[in-house]
Amino acid sequence: MYQEEKYMSEVVKEEYRNWPLGSMIIFDADTNCGKTSFVYDKLIPYLEEEQQTLLYLSNRIKLKDKLKLRTNNRTGVKVMLYQELQEMLKYKKEPQHYDYIVVDEVHYFYADVSFNRYTRLAWEYITRQTGSTIIFMSATASDLFSMLIENFDIPKENIYQLKKAHSQVDKIYFYHDKRRKKGEKKQRVLTAIIDDILENSADEKILVFLKSISDLDDMHKIYGKNATYYCSKTRKQGYRDEDCITGNEEMKGRLLFTTTALDNGIDIKDERLKHIFVELFEIDTVVQAIGRKRPLNENDTYNLYFLEPTQQAIHGFRRNCEKQLEPAEIFRVDREEFDLVYAPKITEIMAENRILYMEYDEESGKYKTEIYGVAYRKYRKDLSFIQRVLATSYKTVLYSRLGEELKSKEAKLEISEKKEKRFEQFLSDNVGVKIFDERKEEVREAFRECGLEAPTMGLNKLNDLLQQANYSYVIKRSDKKEGERKGGKHGKRWWTIERTESIA
């Protein structure tokens, strides 16, 4: 049942004492709702009384280390990474039996499936432990929870939900990065905003989530020792700072750049952290990232800054989803057609596809193709997400997830206002001017500078962008060709920019 309680312990109350062994339990609760605290403060002491054991699974090394500290050498409690479990299962080994299994940050099975094909081993192991009570926990796994409920017939009384409003958010900003042409040096609006904050605030801290190691390298080249950096240990970046979050859960310095390696399981309790930048794309990952800030009181507010994805990035994401789903959809519907189309290139398909996999069939002595249901569902969800973005906007979809009430907190960055004024001036200066082919790219570039772009930038799309951004201008194509012979303009059509108020 859904309840507006503050912490998970208040929602569960004493019901955990009556969970039948072998039950599946779902904690569908936002960040900072006390899911882990319930396990350590309520469940583990109870299991010690009952002399029962618990396996706690997590997805990040920092989270594992933090959990092991809280375990404090308690007997009967084992903390393990999903990756460690998968490594065991690869070699046909399994952990000992545990009475309870906590599957923390269960969104891991969606988040990592695109690059880690062994997530399937851990998922299959967990879901076949029918002799254990299994607790699935996450702030961003609603679709995966729905699949569990459908496949395992989990009763409503085993589902605990807790949602929180982002009431500590002060302002929300959106910004664009200028699109680069091939060979053009990278230009970052991000650094301009950060530099402005560093110059104009005495001690406010900044946390930046970047989408790639390449972006992290770029920031290290710019800020060097004036910032701290965090990424996965496997990346072996020499500047990676293991202690970027101190023992008292505060940021070590004023400026921290990180990848998704810090997107869950880590709490930052630092009143000086006032600015959180998120350059990630998938909404669930965004929610996890901003959930790292744990406000300490009602005055502990902060600003959020989101990089709006380019149309190029959006369509690239869509194409990848479709590429993953296409062979899987054919496999599900018509095995004969699948064999006809994909059998000649099955090795190549299996190397790239994360939904299909090969498994050895002992009965026939041959390998057969199978479908990983979790991966299939993840890519279906991603495709639905991107279709909603294309039908509306990234901003619209983001607000629908974070809460519509946050719209009132949206503000414009000074740098964005300057860009908009320059663009407005460009439009105004060119009203009534004949724009021939050699200047049309200049018009498109003016749009891009203001963050208005699309995969194709024809006349109709430019006018759509003007309308969507509420500019009172329209671009028209001439009905006749230029008749003058001067300047080589003979026989050419042109564009003109007009104010919409003047159109009859």
What's the overall average pLDDT, rounded? 89
Q: Share of helix among residues?
A: 25-40%
Low-pLDDT residue spans = 1-5, 180-186
Count of DSSP helices?
18
Instruction: Quote the distance from N terminus to C terminus.
Output: 57 Å
Q: How does the major sheet shape up?
A: 6 strands, parallel
How big is the Rg? 27 Å
Structural class: alpha/beta
Quaternary structure type:
single chain
Shape: globular
Strand content: 15-25%
- Beta strand count: 16
Q: What strand line-up does the widest sheet have? A: 3-2-4-5-1-6
Could you characterize what this model shows?
This protein has helices at 8-12, 35-50, 61-71, 82-90, 108-111, 119-127, 142-152, 189-200, 213-223, 283-290, 311-333, 335-342, 346-352, 373-391, 394-402, 414-429, 437-449, 459-468, and strands spanning 24-29, 54-58, 77-81, 100-103, 133-138, 159-162, 169-175, 205-209, 228-230, 255-258, 273-278, 302-307, 356-361, 366-371, 473-477, 495-499. It has 504 residues and is an alpha/beta fold. The strands form 4 sheets. A 6-stranded parallel sheet has the order 3-2-4-5-1-6, sandwiched between helices. Strand 13 and strand 14 form a beta hairpin. The model is unreliable at 1-5 and 180-186 (pLDDT under 50).
